[in-house]
Amino acid sequence: MQILVPVKRVVDYNVKVRVKPDGSGVELDNVKMAINPFCEIAVEEALRIKEKGHATEVVVASIGPAHCQEQLRSALALGADRAILVQTDSTPEPLTVAKLLKALIDREQPGLCILGKQAIDGDNNQTGQMLAALTGWPQATFASEVTLNDDQAQVTREVDGGMQTLSLKLPAIITTDLRLNEPRYAALPNIMKAKRKPLATLTPEELGIPIEHRLTTLKVDPPPQRSAGIMVESVDALLDKLKNEAKVL
Ligand code: AMP
Fold this sequence. Notes:
27% of the residues lie in helices and 27% in strands. By secondary structure, it is α/β, with parallel strands linked by helices. The longest helix has 15 residues, at 37-51.
């Protein structure tokens, strides 16, 4: 069984994001980019499933500019077997990403597709759900534990009231929550080996999916500046301020 893992290139989570002066978006020039953290968890989970003998191949796929090859190579260094880049210089919205992934699924015929629950740039949390609708496959979102037996996946999800455990018939869509696993680091020899692993490039046209834009970003504002803190003289002065001046106690 093949596991397909879509990975998105995003601004590294350690970088302080800066809004462009004209408010049209965030600054991406000379900014450190990385695999979206939830996608890294998805790669790790796919690798663990393969290591347990429930899968034979882990394929990672990214949709975006040629630079996405860097993140695909990082995923190959972690242990993925092969990579596919769907190259486009425009920024596809989640529905288009889901349609492109559906076209890849039709080509690749994976038994499982593991996505991040959301990409930390747009915070959309839509692609996995839309892909499940397009494929007609069962879905389990926000997975915090995944177990595979035969043609079933058992997925524990974090929900408001506690934990929910679902059984899904494969093929299925799973999206990862933060506590599912702790991704491994790539060892240097694997980084070297990853350079020789197959990375195929396709275009949206080859997949028969036009890139449509249905949303327009009107403006992006930075969060309001926090006012500077003050030093208090004593614990009593602190308590007094907390009691009388704090907005929420
Ligand atoms: P989103 O719905 O945009 O929050 O993204 C959820 C998940 O969909 C991500 O964690 C990825 O697994 C996948 N995804 C979204 N956009 C892309 C992309 N451009 N390329 C590859 N995977 C993507």
